[in-house]
Write a structure and sequence with these properties.
With 145 residues, this protein is mostly helical. It has one domain. 79% of the residues lie in helices and 0% in strands. The N and C termini lie close together (10 Å).
Amino acid sequence: MAVPPAFSTFSAITELVVTVAVFWFFRQAMTRASYRWGVITVALVYETLFNITYMVSRLVTTDQGGAQEYPAWVIWFLGIHGTLSLVMFIGLIAYVVWARRSVKGGVRDPIGENPREAWTFLGLWSLSVLSGEAIYAFYWAGIIA
């Protein structure tokens, strides 16, 4: 059993906190037409400063650590997770900017008026977070180092 790096543990825990903030923002928007811009802004800034930095640092340290031999499915899983996480991060920024502009433009409840898109986004966000948590579990299982 391998012990994950401390930054991995910190990132795995705080990503759950960010996810709670994202879901809360969407819930407030969909059920009350209430947009908590401060909460989602803090989540986005945190995501940018820490979790994106973490992903880049893992990429750099893995690359400098020499060639690691992993099964093909692990490489694919890591690649899909990284791609999905980046897409969801950019998607969250785009979603928030779109909602903010819509509200400023006079649309009362842009997210609440599009619940199918909101739930699709939240489902993909959840998949991204769960795959990241699975990677964290891979450390403990000794699948990755």
